[in-house]
Structure formats: C-alpha cells, structure tokens
C-alpha cells in the first residue's frame, strides 16, 4: 500500500490492513511523519518496512521546514534595553555587557549617558564595579538565582580563563548546558562551538550542528551564518545560501558577502543576491540612531574597545577562534567571511 497523506477526520483507512476508521476503529497517525494512519500498533509494526523510506523522507522535510521557517527575527536580547533598537552586528563590537544587571547596552546609549555625566550603569544606575573580584561576585550572585544570562556569562569566563578564573573547558560546558536549559540562546551557540572543537566534551560535530540549529531557529544570527558554512563544507551550496539569506536579512554583513561570492561562482541566483542585499540594507537602516552615529564619530571604529570591552575585527577571527568551526576550502572560498562564534563584551 502506498504511503499517502491522510487529511481530515473522515473515513481514512489503515495503511496496512485497509480497515476504515469509524467510531469503533480509531485510526492514529504515524507519530513521526503523520503521512499515514493505523488501526493499531500491530499494523504499524507490520507496515514499518514498507513505510520506513517515505517516513524518513517526510521527517527530514518537516525538520527543514522548521529550520528554515523559524528564527527570522532577532531575539529580545539583541535589542538595547534603553533605546529598544536592535544592536548592530557583531553585537560584541557595538555593545557592552553590564554584570550589575546582566543587560547588554548599545555603545550609542552608553556613550550618550557618559556625555551627560552619568558614569554609573546606563541601565540600572549601579556604580561601576572596582575589580574582577567584585565583578565575579556579582555574577555568581546572579548565578545562584538561576539567571541564564549570568550562568552563560560565567561559562564564557571559564571557557577563556577571564575574571581571575582558571581556564576550565569542562566547567564552561556544564554552565553552558545549564544556561541553555534555562533558555539562553547564546549558550546554545556556545555549546555548538564546544562540541565542534571538542572543548570540555568529546568532539561531536553532528551534535554541534544540532545546537547551532536550535539557536538559529530562535534568531541567533551567528549560528545561522555558521550553519551556512557547515553546509558549504558538505557541498550543499543551496542549503548554505538559504541560511545566509536569512542571516543577511537580519543584518549580517558576512552572510551578504558569502551570498555575493556564491553568486559570482554561479552557486546563487541574481534574485537571491538582490533579495539578500535589500534585506541587509533594511536591517542596517533599522539599527541606526543619532546616538550611535555620535558614538562612532567620537570613538572611531573601535567602539567597544574604547569603552573597555574586547574587540574583534569585523568578519575576521583569531587563529584560536577559527578552530571552533570547520576550515574552508581556500581554493573555493578564498574571499568568504569566516564562520562566527559570538561573545559578549564586558563593560569596564
């Protein structure tokens, strides 16, 4: 019997025995693909061999539908809590993370507050912490209250050996896992990097992709961009372009550049590049503000560094960071932007 979709609540038949549904015979969908119905477990088991191929194919289609249809909007944590505008990408180059309130504030609002003589936290007005010990104590106090942002942030400190902590990859992964379970999107991306590199865990690239996909479906731009590069490594250029198209329209310049390169190589259409360019321009326009323009004019390009944070050069990664994601075939993608691993800058 063919595996065909069964819709509605009418007299569908069992895919194995052909028995029609009725008040006495309740048919149930295949829980994996929902393409066919069965009158009971025995018929489902008997039909499994015939249905297996179609079932797997439909399950894969459903996963793709979910992967590419979700995560087109940036999450709330990507918006400055003061001006409520999306923070320019990469966020760690255009914002500072305040451990006093666990808020990420755009450079524009931070500089505007300082110009008005406000050198306390621009969001919660807390006096700046004196040293790493005070900062760590504040973070750990929030960790004890199960704050996912604080738990993830502490994990990043262990991952890199910051704030006076000894580098401990295993501890970092434990914290990332806890933060992810509590809802941290950045923690999902951090777990993706850890599993891809094998930092603190046994290397598992398939599981890394799962974490990147979960983060991407919740709007994490770097994870979406990374999925595109991973698909390129597999030779799936069409899938890569679909990922980059989403992230480019969210304001990711490296994704736009990747689509441009794909277009020049005949791996993306002119329409796809035009759509990505238009979407990217719209996203960039949405992120503009007078305060951000003033901050850029005042501080130059090193916005976060000038505020005491950590700066990454745009679309470039250090040799150490590049180990977190698959290396590219330089002959094929010489000018593509690098894969990204997001981070959070700490206000001084």
Automatic annotation (TrEMBL):
Domain MYND-type: 14-55
Compositionally biased region (Basic and acidic residues): 318-337
InterPro entries per record: Sel1-like, Sel1_AlgK, TPR-like_helical_dom_sf, Znf_MYND
Similarity comment text for this entry: Belongs to the sel-1 family.
GO MF assignments: zinc ion binding
UniProt-recorded name of the protein: MYND-type domain-containing protein
Gene3D superfamilies documented for this protein: 6.10.140.2220, Tetratricopeptide repeat domain
Region (Disordered): 318-348
Keywords: Metal-binding, Zinc, Zinc-finger
Organism: Thalassiosira oceanica
Keyword Zinc: yes
């Amino acid at each position: 019997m063919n595996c065909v979709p069964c819709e509605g609540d009418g007299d569908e038949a069992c895919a194995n025995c052909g028995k029609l549904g009725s008040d006495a015979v309740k048919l149930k969908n295949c829980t994996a693909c929902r393409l066919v119905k069965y009158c009971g477990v025995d018929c489902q088991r008997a039909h499994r061999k015939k249905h297996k191929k179609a079932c797997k194919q439909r399950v894969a289609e459903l996963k793709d539908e979910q992967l590419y249809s979700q995560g087109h909007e940036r999450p709330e944590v990507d918006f400055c809590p003061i001006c409520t505008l999306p923070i320019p990408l990469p966020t760690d180059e255009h914002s500072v993370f305040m451990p006093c309130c666990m808020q990420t504030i755009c450079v524009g609002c931070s500089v505007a507050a300082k110009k008005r003589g406000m050198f306390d936290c621009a969001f919660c007005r807390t006096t700046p912490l004196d040293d790493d010990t005070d900062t760590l104590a504040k973070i750990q106090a929030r960790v004890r209250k199960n704050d996912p942002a604080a738990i993830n942030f502490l994990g990043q400190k262990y991952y890199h050996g910051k704030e006076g902590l000894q580098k401990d990859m295993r501890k970092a992964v434990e914290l990332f896992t806890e933060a992810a379970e509590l809802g941290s999107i950045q923690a999902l991306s951090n777990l993706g990097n850890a599993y891809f590199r094998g930092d603190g865990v046994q290397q598992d690239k398939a599981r890394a992709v799962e974490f990147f996909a979960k983060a991407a479906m919740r709007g994490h731009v770097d994870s979406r961009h990374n999925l595109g590069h991973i698909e390129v490594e597999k030779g799936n250029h069409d899938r890569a372009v679909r990922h980059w198209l989403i992230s480019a329209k969210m304001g990711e310049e490296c994704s736009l550049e990747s689509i441009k390169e794909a277009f020049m190589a005949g791996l993306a259409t002119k329409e796809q590049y035009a759509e990505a360019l238009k979407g990217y321009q719209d996203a960039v326009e949405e992120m503009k503000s007078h305060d951000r323009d003033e901050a850029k004019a005042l501080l130059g390009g090193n916005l976060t560094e000038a505020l005491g944070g950590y700066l990454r050069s745009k679309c470039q990664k250090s040799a150490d960071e590049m180990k977190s994601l698959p290396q590219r075939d330089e002959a094929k993608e010489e000018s593509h932007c690098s894969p990204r691993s997001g981070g959070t800058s700490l206000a001084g």
